[in-house]
Design goal:
The protein has helices spanning about 15-20, 25-40, 55, 65-70, 85-95, 110-120, 140-150, 160-165, 170-180, and strands at about 10-15, 45-50, 75-80, 100-105, 125-135, 155. By secondary structure, the protein is α/β, with parallel strands linked by helices. The chain has a six-stranded parallel beta sheet. The relative contact order is 0.19.
């Protein structure tokens, strides 16, 4: 697996209003997705996000919606649990010519898991950002993480990915992202 910023794409799954209302650890999840969006933008990684049946489940929650819009993230609607069941999404990801997909969003044990399996089956390397995904129940979340490990799907904290992409301390990018990590921005 290649985790370099030149080889990764960030995929945010279904962080929508009605779904988010019933999620465990939502504040942590949103904070870490925001960190990954900021880092992806800083390093010019493509950002893609999905909304599951937005008519019924609402739009992506703030502040993520504004960030994704500001940074020109590509948005897709879906009705399938796996994002890769939608030909437009699959084609778009393939067209980016990047091998590693960093997955975030909800729910860990449904849409994120289905997408991870299908990405892996289509030749992508997959990294699930463990603290940038969640489920309605802690048990569902933990079961999903166990499953990923058993399927050779990598699981890492968002901060680990950000520091790997940073490579060096003391840079302007480091200072900017460190402020977000420390909650000073």
């Amino acid at each position: 697996m290649v985790l370099s910023k030149d080889n990764c794409v960030l995929l945010v799954i279904d962080m929508q209003e009605k779904l988010c209302k019933v999620m465990k650890n939502l504040d942590r999840t949103v904070k870490n997705i925001r960190l990954l969006i900021e880092a992806a933008h800083e390093f010019n990684l493509p950002i893609v996000y999905t909304e599951q049946y937005p008519k019924g489940l609402g739009e992506t929650v703030e502040p993520l919606k504004s960030l994704l819009s500001t940074y020109g993230a590509k948005r897709f609607d879906k009705m399938s649990f796996s994002a890769l069941k939608i030909d437009e999404i699959k084609s778009h990801l393939e067209s980016l010519n990047r091998k590693t997909v960093v997955l975030t969003g909800i729910e860990s044990h449904i849409c994120v898991l289905s997408t991870a399996i299908d990405l892996k089956g289509n030749g992508f390397d997959v990294v699930v950002a463990s603290d940038a995904t969640t489920s309605r129940e802690e048990e569902f979340y933990k079961t999903a993480l166990d499953f990923y490990n058993g399927q050779s799907i990598s699981v890492l904290p968002a901060e680990t990915l950000v520091f790997y992409w940073l490579e060096f301390a003391g840079t302007d990018s480091f200072k900017k992202l460190q402020r977000i990590i420390l909650g000073k921005e």
